[in-house]
Amino acid sequence: GGWSRSASFTVPSIVMADCIEEHWAEVNGSDGGGESSGGEWCAPGNRNCPGKESIKWQNKSVYIQISESCSPMFGSLSIRVEDEGQSVYIVWNPTDDPNQAATKAVSNLQYAICTHISQIYSIRLIRPSLGTPQVILNLRSGCSHPPMFFHSGRALEFQNKLQEYATLTRCDADASTLLVNDSSNMLQRSLHGLDMVQSSPGVVRSRAPTKPSTPECQAEIDGDELEWSREIGGEWQWRYLQGGVRVMQGLRSGWKKASAVASDVAASAAELLDQMDPPASTMPLPSEAHHHPAGSRPSSKANEVRCGDDECVFVEHEPLPWEDQGLIEEAEFRGFFETNGRIRDIQKLRRRAFYGGFAPNVRREGWKWLLGCYPVNSTRKDREHLLSQKAKEYEAYRRQWESITADQESRFSKFRDRRHRIEKDVIRTDRSIDIFVDDNGDGLQKLYRILLTYSFYNFDLSYCQGMSDLAAPLLVVMEDEVEAFWCFQKLMDLMEPNFHKDQNGMHTQLQTINTLCKDLEPELYDHLERKDCSNFYFCFRWLLIIYKREFGLQDVFRLWEAFWSRVRGQDLHLFVALAILRKHKANIIEEDMEFDSVLKFVNDLSGRMDCLEVLKDADFLSQEAQFRMITTRSARNSLGCA
Question: Strands across the sheet with 302-307, in order?
Fold first, then answer.
C-alpha cells in the first residue's frame, strides 16, 4: 500500500518523466492512459479541472513516485470546490522546474491528477511514526492513483479539510482507510433511497478498487460501467429525508453486515429498562404474552421474577392500562399553577400531557414546560423577565451573521456553504402548511433566520439537513421567532447526537431497537436476521426526525408531547418503532421481505398509520420490556441479577 520515506529525503536532480511514461505503458498498455487492466496504478484522470480561484486548501510540497526505481516528482496538492460545494476535486500538479528541459517539463504535466470526489472509493492515509505521511486515492473504476507523499506533513489537515465537503467513514477492517461517501452498505442504501435533494441522473453502484487496503473494505463488483453524477458531492448522506422511495437496484450480493456496535450496548439496553423505574433487580417468567398477535395488547397479567443471590421468586405484575384522558384545555391548564404563576406539580402536568396532550390554545405554553424552557420554581414574573433576556440574547446571535459584509463573506467559505444549505432546505420544508406557502412569506424568513442563528449559537454542530423538519413545527406552534428558537435549542440539546458526523448516536438507538426486538419479538427478529436486516437501518428516518414525515402535523404534535413528557423514560420513540414493526410483522414475514422490500414497505406507511394506536402499543411495549426474561447471563448481570 505504499512506502514510507524519510522526512529528510533529498530530491535527486534527475527527471522522472521517462520513468513514469515507461511505467504507464507497462500497466495500461500502449495508450499510456485510462484505467488499468488489473495493473497497480491509474493514469491521471479528468483534466477539465476548476481554476486556481476554486482552491480551498493547498500543500505545495507533495510528491509522487510511481515505483522505487523512479525519482520523486514534487508538486502541489489542492482541494478545489465549485458550484457552492456540490463539485469537489482533488488536484495534484507537478511543480515547474526551471532546470529541466522544456520538453520534459511539458511531459511532466501529463501526470497531473484531477479527480472528482464522486470517482473516489476510498482514501488510505498512512502516517508512520518515522517517515513521510502519504495518501493513496483508490478509485471506483478499480484502480488507484500513485501514493502522494506529504514532504512537509499536513496529511491530517488534508483529511480534515476534505471532511467539510464529503463524508469519510473509517473502514472497520483497516483504520488507515477512509471510505468516501460510502453507498456500499445497507445503511447508505436506506439513505439514498429517500431523497431530500434533487435526484442525480446517474445510477449509483458501488464498485471496489482492485487494490484497496483490505478485502473487508470492498463492495461486490458487478462488472458494469459506473455512471456517476457530479451532483453526488457533500449531500449524499441526507438523501433519505424526502418522502417516496427509489429503491436502488443491483448489488444483490456481497453486502457486509453492519460493524459491531460499541461494547456497552448491553449496558445501554439495561439503562433503557432501568429508566422506567422497575423494581430493583427483577426479571420475568416467560409467558404466553410473549407471542400475542401483532398489534394486540393482552389483558392477562404478566409474570415478574425477583432474582436473589440463590433463587428467583415469581410474582405477578399487570401492566398499567392506557388512560384516555382527552386534551388539556385552557381551564385545566390554568389549574396546574398557583396564583403567582408557579407550577404546582410538573410531574402531574407531564403525566397528563402523556395521556392526553395539549389543546391548540395551550400548546404554546405547554411545550415550553415539557422542553424545559422554564425553571420549575419560576413565577409568572420570573418567566416574563426570562423571555425578555432571551429575546436580547437571540438578537445578539442573529446580529453575528447579519453583520457579515459581502467582502467578509467572500473569504468565509464555511458561512457561504452553511447559508446555501439552509436556503435550499427551507424552501422545501412543509410548504403545504399555511405559514410556509408563500415563497417570500414571513414564515419561511423566520425559519431561515432561526436555523442560521442556531448555526452560530452551536458552532460545533452547525446546521445539518433534517433540522428544518424539527424547527418548522416549533415555529408553527410558537408563532414567535424568539420563542421558537429557544424551544429549538432545547430540542436540539436532546437530539444533537442524531446529527453527529460519526452517527454513533443513531447507531446506538438502532442497536437498542435490535436488542428490544430480539427479546420482545423473536419471530420478527429471526426473520430480519436471516435477511440481513437486523441492523434496522430502515428505521433511520423515523428516529432522525422523530417521525416527522410519518404522520400528519397534528399527530406529530401529539406524538412529540408524549415523547417529551418522559413518563415512559427518554426512549419511548424506540418503542414506537418496535410497535409499528410488530403491527406489520405478518406482512414482513409472510411476504418474505428482504432489506429493499422492508425499506420500501415502512416508508410507504407514511401518512397511513393511526397515531394513537401506535402510541398505545408503544406504551404497552415499554412496560412489557421491564418484565421480559432476558436469558443471557451477561444481560442478567447488567440488570443487576446474579
Answer: 282-283, 302-307, 312-317
